[in-house]
Every structure is written in C-alpha cells, then in structure tokens.
Amino acid sequence: MTETAISSCRAFVFDAYGTLFDVGSAIKRCQESLGDEAEKLSELWRRKQLEYSWLRSLMGDFTDFWTVTGDALDYSMAAIGKNDPVLRSRLMETYLSLDTFPEVVETLQTLKNNGHKLAILSNGARHMLISAAKSSGILSLFDEILCVDELRTYKPHPSVYKMAADKLELDASEISFQSSNGWDIAGAGHFGFKTAWINRAAQPVERLSHRADVILARLDEILPLTIKPQTA
Amino acid sequence: MTETAISSCRAFVFDAYGTLFDVGSAIKRCQESLGDEAEKLSELWRRKQLEYSWLRSLMGDFTDFWTVTGDALDYSMAAIGKNDPVLRSRLMETYLSLDTFPEVVETLQTLKNNGHKLAILSNGARHMLISAAKSSGILSLFDEILCVDELRTYKPHPSVYKMAADKLELDASEISFQSSNGWDIAGAGHFGFKTAWINRAAQPVERLSHRADVILARLDEILPLTIKPQTA
C-alpha cells in the first residue's frame, strides 16, 4: 500500500523550485517588459536550467546553480532575440524572492506541528535557497536546508539523495520525498525514498523506471496521508 | 586558429541523429496520421529522448537507446493525447531507416577519398545505427561504428568520447568531432576533441563551458577546412 508507505515516514524532504517555490512567479513580475514572449521565456529558461544542471553533472564540469540559472537565462533571452541587461538582472533577482505556492506555508506548518522532521533538498545554491526561504517566511520551519554545493553534482545523481538520508540520520525508506518534477521523483525512488509527485500541471507520467508512490495535484493533499508519530 | 586545428585532424567522428540522419524524417513519413500535431510530437519526442538518456546516465539506471526512444515516444504521444499502437510501431520502425541530410553522402565520400579515418560516435544502440547506416548506403564509408552499449552511459559523459579516441588509437586532439547538438559539442570539446558544430537550425550558442572550434550551417562546409594527409 503506497499510502501506508508514506504514513510511516519520519521525515519529509522537499524539492524547492516548482514544488515549494513558483518559478513562474519570476517571469510574472517582469511581464510588462516581455509581453507575448513571457510564457515562452519562462518555459525555456526552466528547461535550459535543468538541462545545463544534468549536462554539467554528466560531463564532470560542475558549476554552481546561480551560474547555471544565469546561463540558462542568457540562452533563453538569445532564443527570443532579447538583449536587455537590466531585464536580465531583474529576472535573476526575482529568483532570490520567489513566491511559494498558496498551500505551502500551512502544509509545512502542519507537518512540523505534528512532529515531523522537514528539509529542503534542492539543486539550488545555498545562498539562493536561504534567500528565497527567508523572503517567503518558511526558513524557520526546516530542520535542514540541503544543497549540492559540496557534492559538485546535481539531482538525480544518487549521491544527492544519499546526502539527505545521511544528514537526517534516517534510512532512505523512512523519508518521504515531495517534488513537482517527475524526473526528480524517479531519481529519489530509484535511490530508495518514498515519493509523492506533486503533479500541479497534470503532466504525463515520465517513462523512467521508478514511479511515484502517490501522485497529488497540490502539496496539502499529502496531509491526510501522514500520521503524527507516536511519542515514547 | 580554429580552422587550422581541424585541418590537422587525422580522423573525423560524427554524431548520428540530427547530424547525419534527419530525425524529423521519421515524423514526416507519418504526417497524414498526425496532422497539426506532427511538429509538436517530433520536437517533444526528440527532447524526451535526450532527457531520458541524460537522466538515466546520471541516476545510474542505464537502459539501451531503443528502449529510451520508445519511452520518449510513449511520453510524447500521451502528451498530445494520442493512443495508437499501430502509429507507435510505424514511428519506431522509421528510426531504422532514417533519411540522411542531402549533403551527407558526398561529404563522407570526399573525406574518405582524401584518406581520413571516419567513425560514428552515437548514443544509439548498435542495431539501430547499423540499420540506419545500411539503409542509407553510408555504412561502408566508416572505419568504426561506436556506440555506448558496453559503457552503459550516454554522451556527454567523458568515457564515451574517450572510447572513440581509444578505438581509433589517436590522441583526442587529433580527432575532429562533428555534431548538430550544441551540448554534444560542449562534451566533446571538454574531453579534448576539436569540434565542428553543424548548427542547421541556427540555434543560440549553448551556455556551457566549451564552445565549438567552428560553427557551420551544413556538413559539407567542413570540406574546405580539411586537407589531405601527406603520405610518407
């Protein structure tokens, strides 16, 4: 039973971008400068950001996520024929104060009140994560903010998920991992986490070898699947 | 001088899909069944095929390229709401007899006549590459058909490019690598090959750390940059 699998978990680990933080909110704040191109830029920026993180990991040519995010933006602005250094700076800065999705704060607060350990496990650079979490008021809810800065490789490399299990001092099977990214769910499941895919955009299932234990439309749908751990 | 770099190369190694073979030709043969969705399916199929090859390499969950190609097609057909097993089979079969781009045969023939070693270095499974190369009449022009079946990881992992240098018994710097994929050029350049990016679609430069030595619009534009090796 997949729901039972999640209810027995002792820690809830969250992907950041697209799962807690609405990466589309970066573009929305610069909508007036982008007009009809806003959606295309938003989609391409995110896609290239992921591609560059995977490609650099695979090539053995790591660079931090702030640089990757800027490189992806440069490619995407070039692709829509936009050369505007001021707009570029504004878009990059929005990444440091992204909006959370509406249900995020209350979901995290409830899980914490129920005695669960909470962590972020993200490809983001530490300064990016701390800044966005502080700006949206969720930083204090987490026991750990886990990033790949020292590992020098990105998800879905198994070493990234292993770092979370090691830092939380839990077996992989005791951790429920939440992500809106199907590929991240596949990587986490392959490593051994229980997984909840927050499929906000109702996308097709990724054809990778590990499927999510549960598929939810919003993050708060995980609450009925969790139970408060018994105290001794 | 980048052109001099290529003129001193002793072997020419080619990516297959998108470089020698027109992957769009797969969809064109099934255009009547797809109508307006043809272009979207073609673009998404290719994108997911690449993503799955990178993700599986990074996760340490390799499967052969025929399976990856089928998985990517399944995702893409689901994304456009198409459930048609006969069409799926027809699309997969076209991968075994893809068209080459118009200038490919003559370019390869000229390089071979001038005494250069030629090889394919592709993520494709051996049976896929042999079938497509045989069907388009270019198989006999190559000294080596190099695929990742034994390495169990995909480009741009450095071990794939290293395999080519090892099999050709050449130093990386003596090899000119041709690909239409900017990320593949970055991986090959990072390993140490000389690189020619065949940028057929006039795409923006990928923001990865290695840039191409030359950027060409068609494969035959490499011929003026090559010289016939001197015999002893």
What is the CATH-assigned architecture of the largest domain in chain A? 3-Layer(aba) Sandwich
| Proportion in β-strands of chain A | 5-15%
Pair with the most extensive interface? A-B, 34 and 34 residues
CATH class of the largest domain in chain A: Alpha Beta
What integer value in Å does the Rg of chain A equal? 17 Å
What is the average of the pLDDT values of chain A? 94
- Main sheet summary of chain A: 6 strands, parallel
Strand order of the largest sheet of chain A: 3-2-1-4-5-6
Structural description of this entry:
The structure is a homodimer of 232-residue chains. Chain A is α/β, with parallel strands linked by helices and 232 residues long. Chain A folds into two domains: 2-22 and 99-225, 3-Layer(aba) Sandwich (Rossmann fold), CATH 3.40.50; 24-94, Orthogonal Bundle (DNA polymerase, domain 1). Helices cover 44% and strands 12% of the residues of chain A. Chain A is built from ten helices and six strands. The first copy, chain A, has helices spanning 2-7, 24-28, 31-34, 38-59, 65-79, 85-94, 104-113, 126-135, 158-168, 182-191, and strands at 11-14, 117-122, 144-147, 175-179, 194-198, 214-216. Chain A has a six-stranded parallel β-sheet with strand order 3-2-1-4-5-6, with helices on both faces. In chain A, β2 (117-122), α8 (126-135) and β3 form a beta-alpha-beta unit. In chain A, α4 crosses α5. The longest helix of chain A is centred in the N-terminal third of the chain and has 22 residues, at 38-59. Chain A is globular. The two termini of chain A are 26 Å apart. Chain A binds chain B through residues 48, 51-52, 54-61, 63, 71-72, 74-75, 78-79, 153-154, 156-158, 183, 186-187, 190, 203-209, and chain B through 48, 51-52, 54-61, 63, 71-72, 74-75, 78-79, 153-154, 156-158, 183, 186-187, 190, 203-209.
